[in-house]
Design goal:
Elements: E1 5-12, E2 15-22, E3 44-51, E4 54-60, E5 70-76, E6 83-90, E7 95-101
Antiparallel strand pairs: 1-2, 2-5, 3-4, 3-6, 6-7
Organism: Bradyrhizobium daqingense
Protein name: Sulfur-oxidizing protein SoxZ
Pfam families: SoxZ (PF08770)
Amino acid sequence: MASSIRVRATSNGDITEVQALIQHPMDTGLVKNPNGELIPAHYIKELKFECNGKDVFVANWGTAVSKDPYVKFSFKGAKKGDELKISWTDNKGGSDTTTAKIA
């Protein structure tokens, strides 16, 4: 099964820029389906980026994040060829993990 995470990480000198797109419904629990029933909340609770085993970005999310969230940030201390690990867990126990090499 393909990962729900697409990521691009590029290093320019001491700065590494990361862009990630995550496929997830991010349902708030406040929207009704066509039958008038509430769609249960389903959202990412924690998003984590690790570089060489060290956390470089951790987000604790709630229902206020839009569907298929896009994340962009930069950090120092990595170099080309280093491995970036990206993972998320949601409120229903779902999770996904992928890795990417920094270009």
